[in-house]
């Protein structure tokens, strides 16, 4: 006899899933009457209720809906939600500090201003800092096979959940009280080639009279996608012709160096030996490096080299990973109304990432720009990339991440006063660790292999005899092993937490029972970055982040639900959070004098049901985000940079005679630029409000509309060295280095004091070091409208269920300094998102069509000049590719130019929209077996067929908006037992 799986939901949780448009679930049975529903907790409130909708909008997405829309992971689905209107760093972005992380940007407020909960509890942050600055959550380490539903609340919720809940809360509810087993196996690929995928999962559970256990195991594999898999974008010449420069239109693109020898004095290349470039299996070709002077029309050949046949053929377009996750949840009833529970979730991942392959520049290291070659008597620079055949495999070119996270918690729950009150006590620990293994080249061993022993110095440069045979000949894997290296960076983050909550009915009010909820929480949060001590000492590593420490948090909150009339209910919540007891992880493990952040937040909401089918609602909430630990505890990273001392430039009078150039060593000289955390940061503060309605217009049709606005103050941003030097000079003199232009103080005396403290000068007045880093200075305001519709229809040819969601960003304003102008910036990013689906069920057949539309974004050239808010937009090129100055109203002001005095027009073009359609069809073969077929991105909408007409740099399109993968197909087998 076949055992059918089922999940023992409460009736309200079933209703929540129906409200989320879980495919056709609502058509299989009659929706229970409201009076029959059990009370459960819905994200946004700790008070249990019997209605899905509350004073603030919450979107609920069931696990079946996630799969029906074609998504394999929770993050794939979350990224398409309309609330996630902000973009995030692509996983293959050049210089990414978090290449294997999957953050979420709700309401375009940034990926670090929303809160991730799993079963209502916090989890550890991603250990590595996003953009090298702040801490974010990773949404890709959630075991999809274990997910029951996802609840998304957008807007401030700090009065309920504390810090981080400025833009919203994502609460992932995992399966509980599950009975039966389900096995799923899915495999797919892209029709354009590459990017094979596999997903295998087993979820199940058992229940008894006094116990239950739920479990899930999932393996997901995604192959990396390389530039060579997409010939439409594997070379620099694949950039749109309209983006090509004058030189590129006349003589072609300058070849990227596969192997080159450059004369340091003249900049010319030494020709490779005959046939040398042909030895590398087609990776290189013999190329002339041509330069073209637009003003004179002269073409200059600067020599030959082994150029890359496909500049980006070995670059990753999408990272690959192999993920294994597991989940276990169990309960035990003691028989006296007390239940014990425990939860364990584990995630293990190995990912490939990176852009360009390992390379070496001779002389390797940071000490010298060139070397003296004793054989030729020339000062030379050698540049060489290594190929897969030399390294030994394609995988050998890549960087790898090994990640593991686990979350364990346990608790007791029960009732008091004959079931009048519910209580729960819990303890838990969440831990996340990352190991980065970066492919690079050991500088000293590379010098030894190609240059041999140093033979003194000549003209201040190290003297060597270049072994040209080795330089121009492919290496064997064994030879590469002599110079190759791996830099290993490690990082970890954790949170230990305990909570005690009590909720229930306080007393009977004049219009109904007054409900309340109370919570006490304590937590210890920490992170540690352990970069490779040899990074940028013995070999090059792109990003080196240092820092670490711990802090404690104590919190308490109260919430009330008060019926004011039979149709009007008010909610009120307040919370206090204290962050403090900071400890930095350095050699002395000192306790820092950071002090504490003490924040009180509150929220209020109203729900009015003038008729049963209509809910009018509104809410207001204050919120905060305690400073990211890396903002506070980031340890110094330093670089010596030759930079203009703007104060000396002004004080010496050199600025008045245009003598603040690199030739004036009194004002332009090298000094240390350090970046570290700022211990005296304050919390970011926000407030938000929503107003809207939910209307069951007629049977099986529901409409919702909500207007929302979020305001953020004291936003933390990194202040860079240019700003520090400019404002130090301004604070001291009131002037700028532009004669006749006064300096405007953006922040008063306190701001100047903080700027002056960041500049260190010696007795002679010369800068020895400046310290850049985060400060509280910015504010932001965003507002928009969310619309949605749900409709169910039964017909003779099947049952249909339809849903549509639309978000429009009505306004976005931000100021770096209070004295800055505050114009409308809505047009600078995504302005709207639309998503919807239609599901059909007929007998053993079912199908779903899902589509989403992401609004257009400004093209790269339309962004040129946007920092000058009074004169945005860039200039359209002339016919030969030359581009005039947008500061001169797109007029060519160069007298030597062939287009002198001519003008073009401003460009304000937008790229997009991005429209994606997914289709799946399923057939139930037997009561226990089912087959599903998926086609994602049916019309093959990709980045390379949405290239930005003026984007010359890789990937030629907006990689935060479009994907290079294209159409994907997959088949899935499902077996219930």
Automatic annotation (TrEMBL):
InterPro entries cross-referenced by the UniProt entry: Beta-barrel_TonB (IPR000531), Beta-barrel_TonB_sf (IPR036942), Plug_dom (IPR012910), Plug_dom_sf (IPR037066), TonB-dep_rcpt-like (IPR039426)
Keywords: Cell outer membrane, Membrane, Receptor, Signal, TonB box, Transmembrane, Transmembrane beta strand, Transport
UniProt membrane topology term: Multi-pass membrane protein
Cellular compartments annotated: Cell outer membrane
Signal peptide positions (record): 1-28
Domain TonB-dependent receptor plug: 52-169
Domain TonB-dependent receptor-like beta-barrel: 364-938
A Gene Ontology cellular-component term: cell outer membrane
PANTHER family the record matches: PTHR47234, TONB-DEPENDENT RECEPTOR (PTHR47234:SF1)
Family named by the database record: Belongs to the TonB-dependent receptor family.
Protein name: Outer membrane receptor protein involved in Fe transport
Lineage per the UniProt record: Bacteria, Pseudomonadati, Pseudomonadota, Gammaproteobacteria, Lysobacterales
